[in-house]
Design brief:
The complex is a heterodimer of chains A (310) and B (479).
Chain A lengths: L1 H21 L6 H26 L7 H17 L4 H24 L5 H20 L18 H25 L1 H11 L1 H6 L4 H24 L13 H11 L11 H20 L6 H22 L6
Chain B lengths: L15 E5 L6 H8 L10 E3 L2 E3 L4 H7 L1 E4 L11 H9 L10 H14 L15 H14 L4 E5 L7 H16 L3 E5 L3 H7 L2 E6 L2 E7 L5 H9 L17 E8 L2 E6 L3 E6 L5 H8 L9 E4 L2 E3 L4 H7 L1 E4 L3 H5 L6 H6 L7 E2 L2 E2 L1 H15 L15 H13 L5 E5 L7 H16 L3 E5 L3 H7 L2 E6 L2 E7 L5 H9 L9
Parallel strand pairs in B: 1-6, 1-7, 4-5, 5-6, 11-18, 11-19, 14-17, 17-18
Antiparallel strand pairs in B: 2-3, 7-8, 9-10, 9-12, 12-13, 15-16, 19-20
The chains are: A mainly alpha (310), B alpha/beta (479).
């Protein structure tokens, strides 16, 4: 895992150095800030995804959850609900989505990939049916940038994302619950025998995932004066990619949030880097895929040479 | 680990040759070698006078060696005909399947052993005995010359057993050589021509079945007790700590400082008993008392709270959490105790883990090393330390030294004596007769889910325990 982190870090550094030489404009303050603001919501989702994957689960419904949460936030704001309350209510809706996934997985024993695949289609189609594809428009003036100036609003988004990341990165190491997530993802049976509430932990990571996704949806929506009902398309892949590139084992039990931050940073840089380097943007997905594949191969190689006794 | 040391064994066409031996005597390994699943380091197999070289599962099947295991190895979602075709149809993967032929062949094969099974049924819907018949049919379809039956009657009723004997008799008459493995010594006199006894990976005797008695076989299986060195210290035995009454029909008591060995054959229900006592599969009836107080154990959490600890049999699957560092493995069951306001006290954890690494002599690169990186014996010590930190009053150990090397084994035994000395009540499940005899103060023998006898250390002999485990209780000194 360490080797993978180093390899990815080197790749990232090479990319940044290339950009510094070939396209110094990339490091323009405004560009960097824009890039961070655009990717902050995805990082929050990736934080939740890290917990999910560490616990040995997966959630592919986050893109749909994100879209519904965005529209809910917009609709509430349009109805005159004050913004802090909008954020709270949307977070609760997200927690509800997570609870549905969690219940399917823990109570009915549906594999998480199946349960969340169903949820992904269901929420997305339900949203399409309710909104008829229309955007939420005519939002109150205090919605965009939370009623602040654009620079202040952008700063607020970054601070929120950093705070969420910081709390979870610290908590995963220092909270009992963090330890329990690792234990459940690494060896569920053993964790159960050690008296850990394994069902509760699985449920909790799904609820956290939903809540974080909803908050990410709110933070993403306030960047615009209207809310798109098609928001969050492909978000699940982006989040899972960030976690995997960051060194987490897709089977659970191994990985860190710092790794996820690195993974998210690499993914965030690829698309703008291509633009700045004058490469066709069609290559973005291919390069992303290549990095993920490279990360997994590195993982297999290091697992083989990692001195595991039989 | 060497499971087999020296086994010599011959099988004639049209003969039923029985193999007997206690747990771990090397029966399974011998089957694996014969069927090509593992390569022997030394020795050879001759079939009809020709040496079998470079055996593999494919090769052995082509030679006509087939095994039917106690747990049928069928594909549950395929039909009976497909299961049979999978091994018996030849040709490439791209050939065209002739379904009518396939079903007809299956029907014929099943008819030769008198099994009334619809070839188009999904194999998973068959009963255990029916699945076994499918397995036998599969072996026959491959023109079997040597048929290995591993405990074929273990899950059969008497009527089904009779039918199986009929089939075995017919195969013998057709000239098939049959290797018949069973713990039911009384049936061997009826079905077997010769009997070979395995002990500690060696063949100790081959006898004509008609000239031998179950008693003689048991003596041969147990052998003379080896004066194996166990660091057993007899410590003063205190009051009753652990009292089990009628849990799943089982009752026993363990006192402070006492090691109760639980012996029995594989499948006698020992692990199931341990899992019930630890709340993994809670019992419907019975009472459990710890230090005189009745405790209700419905989950592992309840058990831990009641002072019961359980070190499970399968270290990798149920014991250690391989990805977590050693220190996290040590504290996994006591996260509450090393936390203040749900925050882990990493300092306390490190101190505790370091302390136990020193106390149990765990060989490791450090307490941050992942548990995966340790050797089997050291993993077992970590698994034990996880439960010792809960400060239990009762420690249940399931096969505590299985698959670890001799040195680590002796250390585990020393640790057990230390713990007994400190007043712990220990229940030790073991399939190794010498370990049971060497470490226990009293020995409970289980058979078919029940305790069939309790023997004091001084009165225990390998022969007596084996007789009880096999259901020839008259030979043992039951209470």
């Amino acid at each position: 895992m360490k080797q993978r982190g180093i390899a990815i870090g080197i790749f990232w550094a090479v990319l940044l150095v290339t950009l510094a030489v070939r396209a110094p404009a990339f490091f323009d303050f405004a560009n960097l800030r824009d890039m961070e603001v655009v990717n902050a919501p995805a990082l929050i989702v990736a934080v939740g995804m890290t917990l999910i994957i560490l616990a040995g689960e997966i959630d592919v419904s986050v893109g749909s959850q994100f879209a519904v949460a965005s529209v809910v936030a917009g609709t509430l704001a349009k109805a005159g609900v004050p913004l802090p309350l909008v954020a709270l209510l949307t977070a609760l809706v997200g927690a509800g989505f997570g609870a549905v996934n969690g219940a399917l997985v823990t109570l009915f024993g549906v594999p998480s990939i199946v349960a969340t695949l169903a949820a992904m289609a269901f929420w997305r189609e339900l949203l399409r049916w309710v909104t008829q594809g229309a955007w939420v428009e005519g939002l109150p003036a205090n919605f965009q940038w939370m009623g602040l100036s654009q620079p202040q609003g952008e700063l607020a988004i970054l601070v929120a994302a950093a705070a969420i990341f910081g709390v979870f990165a610290w908590g995963l190491r220092h909270w009992q619950a963090g330890r329990a997530i690792y234990a459940v993802g690494s060896n569920r049976e053993s964790a159960r025998l050690a008296g850990l509430p394994v069902t509760g932990i699985s449920m909790a990571v799904f609820v956290l995932m939903g809540t974080l996704t909803a908050l990410a949806g709110v933070l993403d929506s306030v960047r615009f004066s209207q809310v798109q009902s098609s928001a969050g398309a492909g978000l699940e892949l982006k989040a899972i990619s960030a976690v995997v590139i960051g060194g987490a084992a897709i089977t659970g039990g191994r990985g860190t949030l710092w790794g996820t931050l690195l993974g998210a940073s690499v993914l965030a840089v690829i698309a703008p880097a291509l633009t700045f380097l004058g490469i066709n943007a069609f290559w973005e997905k291919a390069i992303q895929g290549g990095i993920i594949l490279g990360a997994i191969v590195l993982e297999r190689l290091s697992a083989r040479g990692g001195g595991r006794s039989r | 680990m060497r499971a087999l040391k020296g086994v010599s064994f011959d099988l004639q066409a049209g003969e039923v040759h029985a193999l007997v031996g206690e747990n771990g005597a090397g029966k399974s390994t011998l089957i694996k070698i014969l069927t090509g699943a593992v390569e022997p380091d030394l020795g050879s197999i001759f079939l009809a006078g020709e040496r079998v070289a470079g055996n593999s599962p494919h090769h052995s099947r082509a030679l006509g060696i087939a095994a039917v295991y106690q747990q049928p190895a069928i594909f549950p979602h395929l039909t009976v005909a497909e299961n049979l075709a999978l091994v018996n149809e030849t040709g490439g993967l791209a050939r065209r399947v002739r379904w009518a032929d396939r079903v007809r062949t299956a029907r014929e094969l099943l008819a030769t052993i008198g099994a009334e099974i619809d070839p188009e049924r999904e194999a998973g819907t068959l009963s255990m005995p029916e699945q076994q018949l499918v397995e036998i049919a599969k072996a026959l379809g491959a023109n079997v010359r040597v048929l290995i039956l591993d405990e074929p009657t273990a899950s059969l009723t008497e009527v089904e057993t009779e039918r199986l004997f009929g089939i075995v008799g017919r195969l013998r008459a057709q000239g098939t050589g049959i290797i018949y493995i069973s713990h039911r010594l009384e049936e061997l006199g009826r079905i077997a021509d010769r009997i070979t006894v395995l002990r500690d990976g060696e063949s100790v005797a081959t006898r004509q079945a008609s000239e031998t008695t179950p008693q003689q076989l048991i003596s041969l299986m147990a052998g003379r007790e080896l004066a194996a060195v166990f660091p057993k210290r007899v410590v003063p035995i205190g009051d009753v700590v652990f009292s089990v009454k009628g849990v799943g029909g089982v009752s026993f008591q363990v006192r402070a400082g006492e090691i109760l060995g639980v012996a029995g054959l594989v499948g006698a229900g020992r692990t199931e008993l341990a899992e019930t006592l630890f709340g993994i599969t809670p019992a419907a009836s019975g009472t459990v008392q710890v230090n005189g107080k009745t405790v209700v154990v419905r989950s592992p959490e309840d058990a831990i709270r009641a002072g019961i600890a359980y070190v499970p049999e399968d270290r990798r699957r149920h014991g250690i959490v391989g990805d977590l560092p050693l220190r996290a493995n040590t504290t996994l069951a006591i996260l509450d105790r090393i936390s203040a306001n749900t925050l882990l006290d990493q300092q306390a954890e490190r101190a505790l883990a370091t302390d136990w690494v020193l106390r149990l002599g765990v060989k490791t690169d450090g307490i941050d090393a992942p548990a995966n990186s340790l050797s089997g014996g050291n993993q077992q010590k970590v698994a034990i330390s996880r439960w010792l930190v809960t400060e239990p009053k009762v420690l249940i150990l399931d096969e505590p030294t299985q698959g670890i090397d001799v040195g680590a084994k002796a250390e585990c035994h020393r640790i057990m004596c230390d713990l007994a000395e400190k007043g712990l009540a220990i229940v030790m499940i073991s399939s190794e007769l010498s370990e049971i005899l060497g470490m226990s103060d009293r020995i409970a023998v289980m058979r078919a889910g029940a305790i069939v006898g309790v023997v004091e250390r001084s009165a225990a002999t390998g022969e007596g325990l084996l007789a009880l485990a096999l259901g020839h209780g008259a030979l043992g000194q039951s209470e």
